[in-house]
Design brief:
Mean pLDDT: 92
Number of strands: 6
Order of helices and strands: EHHEEEHEHEH
Radius of gyration: 14 Å
Low-confidence stretches: none
Shape: globular
Structural class: alpha/beta
């Protein structure tokens, strides 16, 4: 497995992955945020690949000098292989390089099921945040 920055050539694979693993409402919201984040800072969108196929994605953003994990998704055939953890770790490294004041996990109705994944890599309830105002990539 390779974790790397999103490339424009990944777009259709990422779109298909998100459409397959997210609810319709979550997919619609995520695609808008994904597009906004790409226009702001594509280096905070990472993909995991296996044999050149995109099997996971994580979308992060920086808002008010805080790093936020916005959405993580792993193809159902590739779960429980450490892909989500690897994506979270690599994005954390990028947040640290950017010297954000704090790293938080965005909490919304769609990502509550993956909060245990963040806990498994060391985040706790104090790191989960429902921002006072919508993130820039959501509010646009």
């Amino acid at each position: 497995m390779i974790v790397r920055s999103f490339h424009l050539s990944d777009y259709f694979s990422v779109n298909r992955l998100l459409e397959d693993v997210l609810s319709e409402e979550c997919y619609t919201e995520t695609m808008k945020a994904f597009s906004r984040q790409l226009s702001l800072d594509s280096q905070l969108v990472l993909v995991a690949t296996e044999q050149d196929a995109v099997v996971g994605i994580i979308i992060g953003t920086i808002d008010d000098n805080k790093g936020y994990y916005y959405r993580v998704a792993v193809h159902s055939d590739h779960r429980r292989k450490g892909i989500g953890k690897a994506l979270i770790q690599r994005l954390k490294e990028r947040f640290i390089t950017r010297k954000v004041s704090r790293i938080l996990v965005t909490v919304d109705a769609h990502n509550e099921p993956v909060l245990p994944l963040y806990q498994a890599v060391g985040y706790d309830m104090g790191d989960f945040a429902k921002p006072d105002k919508p993130l820039g990539i959501v509010n646009g």
